[in-house]
């Protein structure tokens, strides 16, 4: 949708994004088949199918946010806020909007995945922490010594992206709990010298970190849903 608004060609899914989406689509198909066969009296399959479709939509929105942020960043060439023209300020604000939307969605998707995993594998994470996150679910896998293969793969993905994810988490927390994340950068610079001009943040590095966050999400979704599909296939559930 956003690509059409930006005058770009529609996205062609490939790589990690395609693999993550295909894994979730396969799970959704398996769930629909089970609903048709067993009529799903408890609505458990229906709930998981809705959650899975929601994750597909959320992943699409994350990728589009990253792409839109990258699109608008190309028109930001000034090194200092005060040097921007009115037009460039508008492009910068649009970049900031989609960049922030992106890093917030990274953690939103992971927490939704945590909810799915907690339900699928009866982890009872809410007994440990009422409002749990994806990372609480990972710790619960290890504590229960449950589904070791999946747990190990998700832990490895988390460690591989630890540095960019820590930076994104800090910005997410600042944005949600304290102040606009880009204004935090401005405030830090003001503390260095009240007469100094405000230098623009490193947009390229920020976009790289968001792209790595997108990759981390794709890999986590792919691993989780592939494992689920394999487990169900062993139990005779096939599309």
TrEMBL record:
Q: Which Pfam families match?
A: HEPN_Cthe2314
Task: Name all Cthe-2314-like HEPN domain ranges.
Answer: 51-229
Q: What is this protein called?
A: Cthe-2314-like HEPN domain-containing protein
Organism, per UniProt? Paenibacillus lactis
